[in-house]
Amino acid sequence: MADIQYYDVIIKPVVTEKSMSDMADKKYTFLVHPQVTKTQVKEAVEKMFDGVKVKKVNTMNVVGKPKRRGLIRGKTARTKKAIVTLTEESADIEIFTGL
């Protein structure tokens, strides 16, 4: 595995209706690099956002969906999602405020 720095771990936040409702429980969803571990995700979130303490990280591999355009068949890219749960005394993540 290549040397992945903490700023390469998180690709982008996931903004869906379900992920927005989970923010009330201090759960935030991110798309992450496919080869990272839970501890790397925890370290990256704590380094990137000030005052944030991670309680738990859940990860899931999302398989690409089959797509077809005419006779040509293919698949969308595989991704990995991480749901990060923060501690009770932790500060909120600023990206999601105001959404």
Task: Describe this structure as you would to a colleague.
By secondary structure, the protein is α+β, with helices and mostly antiparallel strands. It has one domain (6-89): Alpha-Beta Plaits. The chain is 21% helix and 35% strand. It contains three helices and six strands, in the order αβαβαββββ. It has helices at 6-9, 17-22, 38-48; strands at residues 10-13, 27-32, 54-62, 66-69, 72-75, 79-86. The chain has a four-stranded antiparallel sheet. A two-stranded antiparallel ribbon has the order 4-5. It starts with 5 loop residues before the first helix and ends in a 13-residue tail after the last strand. The model has no long low-confidence stretch (mean pLDDT 92).
Please summarize what this structure is.
The protein has 99 residues and is an alpha+beta fold. Helices cover 21% and strands 35% of the residues. It has a single domain, classed as RRM (RNA recognition motif) domain (Alpha-Beta Plaits).
Write the layout of secondary structure elements.
Layout: H1 6-9, E1 10-13, H2 17-22, E2 27-32, H3 38-48, E3 54-62, E4 66-69, E5 72-75, E6 79-86
Antiparallel strand pairs: 1-2, 2-6, 3-6, 4-5
